[in-house]
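Bug #77: duplicate submission created two jobs. Keeping one. Sequence:
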Amino acid sequence: MQGSTPWLPGDDSAERKHAPATLRNREPIAKVLQEELPVTGKVLEVASGSGEHCAFFAELFPGHLWQPTDPDPGALGSIVSWCAGLDNVLPPLALDAASAEWPVDAADAVLCINMAHISPWEATLGLIAGAQRLLAKGAPLMLYGPWRREGVETAPSNEVRRFAQCARSALGAAAGKGSRRRRRCPRFRAHAAGRDAGEQIDDDLSPLVQHLDRCFAVAVQAVLAPRGGRWRR
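Kept job's structure:
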């Protein structure tokens, strides 16, 4: 895609970021939006990322006013670049979903794409609480992501991300207890970078899943040990 580069959050190497998954999911999401969005009104997008979704939807739904947001300064610049020239897109706002205070007072719909499964649980709780504050009764809160359902298989890459998020959450708690050296998993970082850059990776992810599972167990034990607890499978 001309003028854009594959991007990981926190990477400020290019003004216009490109999230490869956007090209795969934007049209299926748009079909749902066509059915669920109100006839007109303000749509708040939480965790807009690169801004590609917002730009695409703003062109498809010109009767709606779009408010993109993201906590990442690099993302805000990318949103401005992607949405340049779109009169129905407001300037992006810095918004942390986990915060109790949002820089938006009201919205007619809230949209959040691919945040819940890769962010701390507090972000999802904050998203729901924020939507409750902003939305009128019956107004939609729409989430997109790789949800787990009983009896329905999910992609191995989603399992990797699930284990990694659990490990990061537990490791973050452990870091607060003085275990900062355990905060990061190099194997997951390399895998995630390859996925987000659209590179080929080994289809057999089971060794990585097992590695992340061990990281999670170690992290949980690091949190429980000072309290006399013990992790068991």
